[in-house]
Design brief:
Elements lengths: L2 E7 L7 H19 L4 E7 L4 H10 L4 H12 L2 E9 L2 E2 L1 H8 L10 E8 L7 H12 L3 E2 L4 E4 L6 H19 L32 H4 L7
Parallel strand pairs: 1-2, 1-3, 3-5, 5-6, 5-7
Antiparallel strand pairs: 3-4
Helix pairs in contact: 1-6, 2-4
Length: 218
């Protein structure tokens, strides 16, 4: 059975260096998986066309059909590549908004490569001080090698080496049986949280007026 690899790109331009890096990583993961005698199906999820729908989901709590379909892709993925452009020294707002509307268990135990693009190498630590903590919070299984690419890095052997190393780490997890749901890993435990494409539902919210009812402030 082919593994399902989901590539999430938060690039906002055309052509997009973020999408270019995402495609290079996906190709390298595909090579790594097939070299191990397995197959992989790749889906690409561009977040830019979802921007208005994501804003609707955040402000109304109701997900349009395209956001629901995107959630389902995440919930069914065996592995994820997540790539964001760097804006103002962190991941883009579009990137964060997408992960904000996922079910809290949608990425539990899922192998993941994180990557970022920027115009300058000064932002190279963003992956470890911003993106990796976000994915750790969501309990994704982030591989040790993250891939940062400044504009000047494209086409260099150094970037190619980082891509191959990160892709190899993800490919190893995809064909292994230790962490992938459906293949006997930890997420198959009977007491493990179930992944779903549902919303980040925090349950019923008690209005402040009700919480403060009878409180005089003294």
């Amino acid at each position: 059975m082919a593994r399902k690899l989901l590539v999430i790109s938060a690039g906002v331009s055309t052509p997009s260096s973020t999408r270019l890096l995402a495609d290079q990583l996906a190709d390298a993961v595909g090579t790594g998986v097939t070299a191990r005698g397995e197959a992989v199906d790749v889906d690409v999820l561009e977040l830019a066309p979802l921007a208005a729908s994501l804003a609707t989901t955040v402000t109304s709590g109701v997900a349009p059909a395209d956001v629901t379909a995107a959630r389902d892709l995440v919930a069914s993925a065996d592995g994820v590549i997540a790539v964001t452009p760097i804006f103002t020294a962190s991941y883009s707002g579009l990137f964060k908004m997408f992960f904000d509307v996922l079910d809290p268990e949608a990425l539990t135990g899922v192998p993941m490569v994180i990557a970022a693009t920027a115009g300058t190498p000064r932002h190279s630590l963003v992956l470890d001080h911003a993106v990796r903590p976000l994915m750790n919070y969501l309990r994704a299984d982030v591989v040790p090698t993250a891939v940062f690419a400044a504009t000047e890095d494209f086409g260099t052997s150094e970037l190619g080496g980082r891509i191959r190393r990160a892709a190899g780490e993800l490919a190893q997890r995809l064909v292994g049986t230790a962490t992938v749901a459906g293949f006997g890993g930890p997420t198959d435990r009977s007491d493990a949280p179930r992944r779903s494409g549902g919303a980040n539902d925090l349950g019923a919210v008690t209005p402040f007026a009700e919480l403060l009812q009878g409180h005089t402030g003294s």
